[in-house]
């Protein structure tokens, strides 16, 4: 079923590439709860580790052990690969992680298995039994190596004989039937005793010298002893494996689990892909999604809140690919396979099943027409639940009017179930009937009339024109045939299509104006925030000055009262002189004596540039470059020419409302937390921060979910992700502006 789906969705090449990252047979299912699996993935992504080498499936080997069969050394080594890899993982520094150490702690390798693992060594990806473990085997190997060396020396001596030189074809040593031979001419027997092993077509002979025959007989005897000894070792290890068969089954499953994780991690790293964890929410939101089969494609952005999405519009304009993109995103998210998307602003519900009715189901062998095939496919879907369904060209196979009524009834039935449906169609009747349904969303593929080509863009809330005649012309149909088709089609129907297209254009303009209006609203909201901050800063500065003056005044009064009680005139004079000095040293409003404030002059107010709009006695009306108009005292203004070298920024360290690079929301209610977070982000934007840290904790997950949803919809948040483990991990978010 899964293979059938990803083939229909043009994901076969993508899935094949993904499968290549597995150490052994690829599995889509993660085997555990998706949320837990995602936690493992997030942790593993922080670890620098080497992926495992290819490993064979161990099921047949374990069955052989259970039947008391004897595994061969290469079969045993497939188990050892897994043991060695988990020992490698256990050696990594994972102390700052939460879930992976727990997973590895559960894998307690029996001491007998560890001894077997330790008896194998790997050099250049080839395994062998270590020296010093099996002493009898070591002696045999030593004897074999000694005889091989003796054989080489004997062969060198033979090749150095002068009498043999006339008969030597080449001085290479040829391996024939696992025996080292010389290639000689006829007549060699006069100078060399040996046995002919084989003959070439040219009449030359492969000769095994007699002096080597004895060595090979001894070698053959040693090899036989070695095979018997290895069989005993294999039997002993197989017996130990049988004793620990439950452990081997357990670690085999754990390896599959880890393999499934590491394949996803390295696939995401190598291709800069992202993970989407399916949510319980009903809306399907794709932001900057690109179908893996497309090259240089326009990113797909869609907010599918309704139960049914009806896609109409120009032929070859991307309707089918939009349908496949939505289903592909749902498929990949369901199995936590990474792909290219803006994960922080996307949301995909979890669907138990994914269905696609895309290809023509006609089957001449079984006498099934296109329409009959469609009906058979729909019959299978009448009882499905918790699914997403895609139907391409729903009108295929029968009369348009009858089909629109039939499919309207079928969709009305499916609408009552817990499923989402995506449809592409050219049925104007079906589209108009469905358009009045509040559970149906419309989107239209648009046509670029100037270029006479599809734009591959979509307009939400509209029914699109097919542009069949224009498409036919683009694909080479002669103009006279197209003109005749237009005559047959009729002026009234053409006017109806034009009316549909005009409606689409009006909606495009409306959409643009709405976007412009939203941008203006955001700009004014930001200006309002900036103005409020300026007012707060001014009020705080006045309050601080007032408190300071009150403090000086109170100190002076207290000191004066004390002196009056003493009635010492000299002390009173000294006190007055002291207070006079204090008064002179109080900060005065700075104003250059040479400043000439005039309407239209550039000025600086609180480190922000602006222009003077009006001047009165004690008030100047100014407009800052940010667009804020305000009344201020002229004494607080500086001419712009005098402060050219000053950077145009707000010094948040001097503000009473200064913001830090982190915010802690622990213990806050959801509504209170969002209100605090909204104000905090505004302050950070004003302060010019690029990145901040939000602590929300883990707890029940409610506050975390609310914060994530707010960040995903905030217009100024570019992206956000879980913080590093040393900065809060899953209990915090790193937010970028």
Which key phrases capture this entry?
six-stranded mixed beta sheet; alpha+beta; 16% strand; 737 residues; extended; Rossmann fold; single chain
Write the layout of secondary structure elements.
Layout: H1 2-8, H2 12-19, H3 34-44, H4 59-66, H5 73-90, H6 99-105, H7 111-118, E1 120-123, E2 126-129, H8 135-159, E3 174-176, E4 179-184, E5 194-199, E6 205-209, H9 210-243, H10 245-271, E7 284-289, E8 300-304, E9 308-313, H11 319-334, E10 353-357, H12 370-381, E11 387-391, H13 400-415, E12 419-424, H14 428-435, E13 440-448, E14 453-460, H15 468-474, H16 479-489, H17 491-566, H18 569-585, E15 602-605, E16 608-615, E17 620-624, E18 629-632, E19 638-639, E20 662-664, H19 670-687, E21 691-695, H20 702-713, E22 719-722, E23 732-736
Parallel strand pairs: 9-12, 9-13, 10-11, 11-12, 20-21
Antiparallel strand pairs: 1-2, 3-4, 4-6, 5-6, 7-8, 13-14, 15-16, 15-19, 16-17, 17-18, 21-23, 22-23
Helix pairs in contact: 3-10, 5-10, 8-9, 13-14, 17-18, 19-20
Low-confidence stretches: 362-367, 641-658
CATH topology of the domain at 284-474: Rossmann fold
> How would you sum up the global shape?
extended
Q: What is the beta-strand fraction? A: 15-25%
Q: What is the annotated CATH architecture of the domain at 284-474? A: 3-Layer(aba) Sandwich
| Contiguous helical run count | 20
Distance between the termini: 43 Å
Q: Using the coordinates above, name the CATH class of the domain at 284-474.
A: Alpha Beta
Total strand segments: 23
Mean pLDDT: 83
**For the largest beta sheet, what order do the strands appear in spatially?**
10-11-12-9-13-14
Helix content: 40-55%
- CATH level 4 superfamily of the domain at 284-474: P-loop containing nucleotide triphosphate hydrolases
Gyration radius, in Å: 41 Å
Structural class given helices, strands, pairing?
alpha+beta
Largest sheet: 6 strands, mixed
